[in-house]
């Protein structure tokens, strides 16, 4: 997991390379570089500041697990000992497994009026060896799923989905909430065992007005971690990439 991973996209006009968490070694392929969560904005091109919450998995499990809030620790223990959950981790998901994930996520997205998942992107990430999927199940039925990008010893949460709202049973909804927290714990445990040093919650809202995003922050903060500022952006690698960006800027799209 320590090697940098790039995801390549072939477009009608330009080819792009997407690099997570820092500049890749050597000469990247394509006409454009998409920078995802780099530690510094050391390029000429578009830049946007991002924040995320990172958990240090290089420490002993007892250290990062004790940073969980007390109620979260209780819910994880309850899920582990009482709920009879199964854990499934796919570190090299097949196309069929990506489609299964997409079907589950899209059912969740429909309940919350969210965009559907980008299956084409997930398949490209899987082909690059950068996609990980995990599931919490009960009696073989999926309850919660997480997807991650893996690169440079870091696992970045892409999406999380459950069918929490599909159940009219309050006890079942409470159990699914425990299963979600338990799945984060099991993911951290498995990622650490595989040599991953950082767990990235995939974003943290730095504002103060959006109540829904503040609630998501509060959930993520149940697991401890450190808020970190990073940078996204796009810059050209070739004359074709520069021309493409210039044309998009003329149209107000870059």
Descriptive report:
- Helices cover 37% and strands 30% of the residues.
- The protein has 254 residues and is of the alpha+beta class.
- The protein has a domain of 154 residues: 3-Layer(aba) Sandwich (Aminopeptidase).
- A 10-stranded mixed β-sheet has the order 1-2-3-10-4-9-8-7-6-5, with helices on both faces.
- Helix 2 packs across helix 5 and helix 3 packs antiparallel against helix 4.
- The radius of gyration is 19 Å and the shape is globular.
What descriptive keywords fit this protein?
7 helices, 10 strands, Aminopeptidase, 254 residues, globular, 37% helix, alpha+beta
Strand-pairing-aware structural class: alpha+beta
Radius of gyration: 19 Å
Main sheet attributes: strand count, strand direction, barrel closure: 10 strands, mixed
Reading off the top of the CATH hierarchy, the class of the domain at 57-210 is best stated as Alpha Beta
* N→C terminal distance: 32 Å
* Number of helical segments with 4 or more residues: 7
Number of strands: 10
Instruction: Summarize the helix and strand pattern as letters.
Output: EEEEHHEHHEEEHEHEH
What form results from the Cα inertia axes?
A: globular
CATH architecture of the domain at 57-210: 3-Layer(aba) Sandwich
Going across the biggest sheet, name each strand in turn. 1-2-3-10-4-9-8-7-6-5
Proportion of helical residues: 25-40%
Name the CATH superfamily classification of the domain at 57-210: Gcn5-related N-acetyltransferase (GNAT)
Q: Which spans have pLDDT < 50 for at least 5 consecutive residues?
A: none
The pLDDT mean sits at 93
Per the CATH scheme, the topology name of the domain at 57-210 is: Aminopeptidase
Question: What proportion of the residues form beta strands (DSSP E)?
Answer: 25-35%
């Amino acid at each position: 997991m320590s090697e940098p991973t790039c995801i390549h996209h072939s477009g009608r006009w330009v080819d792009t390379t997407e690099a997570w968490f820092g500049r890749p070694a050597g000469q990247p392929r394509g006409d454009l570089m998409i920078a995802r969560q780099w530690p510094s904005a050391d390029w000429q091109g578009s830049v946007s500041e991002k924040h995320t919450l990172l958990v240090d998995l290089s420490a002993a499990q007892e250290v990062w697990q004790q940073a969980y809030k007390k109620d979260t620790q209780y819910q994880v223990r309850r899920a582990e000992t009482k709920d009879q959950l199964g854990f499934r981790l796919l570190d090299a998901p097949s196309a069929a497994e990506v489609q299964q994930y997409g079907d589950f996520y899209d059912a969740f997205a429909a309940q919350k009026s969210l965009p559907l998942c980008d299956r084409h992107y997930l398949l490209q990430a899987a082909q690059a060896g950068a996609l990980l999927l995990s599931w919490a199940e009960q009696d073989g039925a999926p309850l919660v799923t997480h997807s991650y990008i893996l690169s440079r010893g870091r696992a970045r949460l892409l999406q999380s989905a459950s069918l929490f709202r599909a159940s009219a049973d309050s006890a079942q909804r409470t159990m699914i909430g425990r299963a979600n927290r338990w799945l984060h714990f099991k993911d951290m445990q498995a990622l650490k065992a595989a040599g991953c040093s950082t767990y990235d919650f995939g974003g943290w809202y730095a504002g103060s007005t959006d109540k829904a995003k503040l609630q998501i922050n509060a959930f993520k903060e149940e697991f401890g971690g450190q808020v970190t500022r990073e940078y996204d952006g796009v810059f050209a690698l070739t004359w074709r990439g520069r021309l493409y960006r210039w044309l998009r800027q003329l149209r107000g799209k870059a």
